Amino acid sequence: MIDFAIPAELAAERDRVRRFVIDKIVPYERDPRLTAHGPTDELRQELVELARAEELLTVQAPESLGGRGLTHIEQAVIYEAAGWSTLGPVAMNCAAPDEGNMFLLSKVADPDQVQRYLAPVIAGHQRSVFAMTEPDGAGSDPAQLSTAASFDGEHFTINGRKWLITGANGAKTWIIMARLAANPHLPEGPTLFLADGDEPGIVIERTMNTMDRNYVAGHGVVRFDNLVLPREALLGEAGQALRYAQLRLAPARLTHCMRWLGAAERAQSIAIEHARTRTAFGKPIGEHEGVSFMLADNEIALHQCRLTIWHACWLMDNGEKARHESSIAKSFVSEELFKVADRCVQVLGGIGISDETVVEMIFRDMRAFRLYDGPTEVHKYAIGRKVLRG
To answer: Of 197, 184, 191, 207, which Cα lies nearest the Cα of 147?
Structure first.
């Protein structure tokens, strides 16, 4: 049976989330603490407390850890509502990279690691990072990983350099990917480690200047300078980092799509209102075919994106890994929503490139979405390989 109906209880919660974002979070979009490098930690904490008061904080977490254990389909509905403002997911603690990191840790971390590294993130008291991308190649191709780890039987020592590490400045829970050298104690190869952000071997060199500003503290350049960690810092099994990264990335691709769908809806609503009220050549501009067709194209794209997301979520809720379908969703949705945002800028005309509305910010952030968790071309490469294999 194919059923596209949203259960009444879920629909009511979606509407409650949307009202919360509009009433409580949207006013913060003009807050000076939303900087060129994203929201400050002070602003984030203030937003988190608003969500906590409404019992909307980290609703996606497993019930055993204080959340509601949402299915992927339920997340799609709720995250879309939260994404009406780019600050909505920040407030509700379901923004990247924390959302994906929480998912990974809930699947892989041992009980002691859960209490030390995961529980404070779920509670909204601290942030996390996933340190994989490197300036010399490792990113979309993690096989080029050069950050090195050695193990003497008691301690790991990590050296290397990372960049584009989202939220690095001020994060407390660190997930670090490094290549473990051959040793007599553990398997070698790409491995994940957990660390506290204030370890002396973690050096934040700088925060990068990027066009997006929707993630707390922006994106950092980080150096690991003889970072020494105990054996207990090993996350999961040694040599299995790439498998764990895939475990994290498939659902994380989709949650990006969910949140940005909400932002694109917001841009479309602003463009529609402008098209109704702005006049040119004797009538509202929305009555001119050139404008109405752009709005129609947007409506078609939003609908197609939603269905694509829901299908991949449905597969995962039914036990499928859905790597192929999540790649399809990420490549298709990111490209289509960018076109939606671009057309909204066009409909708005001059004010579309100004900060008179949030469309300009959504447009810039949406451009970066085409790169998050794998650029479109990498996903298409993977899709093409699967198609050719039959």
So the answer is: 191
